[in-house]
UniProtKB/TrEMBL annotation:
SUPFAM superfamilies: Acyl-CoA N-acyltransferases (Nat) (SSF55729). The keyword Transcription does not apply. Signal peptide: none annotated. One of its GO terms (molecular function) is acyltransferase activity, transferring groups other than amino-acyl groups. It comes from the Bacteria. This is GNAT family N-acetyltransferase. Keywords: Acyltransferase, Transferase. It comes from Paenibacillus lutimineralis. Gene3D superfamilies: 3.40.630.30. Residues 5-161 form the N-acetyltransferase domain.
Length: 161
């Protein structure tokens, strides 16, 4: 399958598929608030073309890794915050790992030295995935969210490039 996967920067034409992935992946187990886009325009304002790497599998968008600087400060331009989502139809096929490898390479080319992310303790599969990809915990926001009638920690993770 690896020969049929193309990793590239997102384009305008990807918006519908990326919105679909968001609707299928992000729920109260994976994010503090469901991600729901009211329109394609709203999505493109928040996630303009080129601020994600997408995994295209035989013409279908199977996942993405989004990235942005954590602050507008020039002193913080060596860090990228990332978020990753893989469509349920493509999970457990190495797509996520390929996306992490791709963002590491792309970010290093841009002069980025550190990738960071946040993950909820209600998503232990994602925590394990990130650890397997070389991310380590750099902090924890204890009982940061109240979801499904219980308090949930928000884990801050990073990897150096």
């Amino acid at each position: 399958m690896s020969n049929s996967i193309q990793i590239r920067l997102s384009e305008m034409r990807d918006a519908g598929a990326l919105m679909e992935i968001d609707s299928r992946v992000w729920d109260t187990r994976t994010t503090p608030a469901p991600i729901q886009w009211n329109s394609r325009e709203q999505y493109l304002q928040k996630c303009p073309p080129g601020n994600q790497l997408v995994a295209e599998i035989n013409g279908a968008i199977g996942g993405y890794v989004g990235f942005d600087y954590p602050t507008p400060l020039s002193s913080n331009r060596h860090v990228l915050d990332i978020n990753i989502a893989v469509h349920p139809d493509f999970q457990r096929q190495g797509i996520g790992q390929r996306l992490i490898e791709a963002i590491r390479a792309w970010a290093a080319e841009q002069g980025v030295r550190k990738l960071s992310l946040r993950v909820l303790t209600t998503n232990p599969g994602a925590v394990e995935f990130y650890r397997n990809c070389g991310f380590v915990e750099q902090g924890r926001l204890v009982q940061e969210f109240y979801l499904n009638e219980k308090y949930v920690d928000d884990i801050l993770m990073y990897c150096m490039l």
